[in-house]
Amino acid sequence: MDANLIVSNFLNPPILFFFLGMTAVFVKSDLEIPAPVPKLFSLYLLFAIGFKGGVELIKSSITQEVVLTLIAAVLMACLVPIYTFFILKLKLDTYDAAAIAATYGSISAVTFITASAFLNELGITVDGYMVAALALMESPAIIVGLILVNLFTTDGKRDFSWPKVLRDAFLNSSVFLLVGSLLIGFLTGEHGWQVLEPFTQGMFYGVLTFFLLDMGLVAARKIKDLQKTGVFLISFAILIPIVNAVIGLAIAKAIGMPQGDALLFAVLCASASYIAVPAAMRLTVPQANPSLYVSTALAVTFPFNIIVGIPLYLYGINLFWR
User: Fold this and answer.
1) Any idea what DSSP says for residue 153?
2) What is the pTM of this model?
3) How far apart are CA 231 and CA 106, in angstroms?
4) Do residues 264 and 120 lie in contact, with contact meaning Cβ atoms separated by under 8 Å?
5) What pLDDT, in 10s, does the model give residues 238-288?
6) Region for 39 from its dihedrals, namely left if φ exceeds 0, alpha if ψ lies in -120 to 50, beta otherwise
């Protein structure tokens, strides 16, 4: 593997600020970011990437490749929770296995955004419809996870409303804002982009950098929870993203995605949700232990993907797309 890819990714300001946040926790600094600020920045990043995706989407026609990519995105969001569930069942009970499986079947929008910034630094173009793939992969894993709980538990403790679950899965704030921004970008096109460009583009890297500083603080605080997970889950949190990325790259190659789109698709397959799915699982599967599915996704898989995974997956693309 080309070490320059890892070095160039590592030396990006957003990644370095992620480590600065982790370091602040390790050295017991009193660095704190007020709670409303990370939420605001998270919404901004979703808005900016969704709006840009909509503008780019209008430039590209609905081709067979686009349709196949979106179908593959939904398929992976449904399949990943199923096979990861049975792997996790080797060591965990049904509730924990289903919650973690749903977490890894869904996606991390921030990992996707970080990969987009990485590609932009390298001058590799991507298509706007990949944001639609991001939006489509957010919710199906929640549904699959709950179906698995229903199929494999017989203790009668399941007590939740399917209409509320479906509403929360498809209308939660991140999905709603992302899809809404995508549609507005599509409707307003290049004119809308020129109007909002100073806000959606000029501020983007600064906000991403500050957001990853906060993510570093949060991830470092979650590391202590890894003591409860054991070697099995830590290994799972590193190896399963690689397996999912390899499957994603094989699908991308079969569809004929260009390199930039292939990397984003691999990142979507390899990432794990630490916001939307944990919130849904706490509501619908209270028997599952949140420290397991939050700490593995946020303290292991997220740092692994943004530091090593993104350049590793691009290296694989460079090998097989020649």
Assistant:
1) -
2) 0.84
3) 23
4) no
5) 999 999 999 999 999 999 999 999 999 999 999 998 877 887 787 778 888
6) alpha
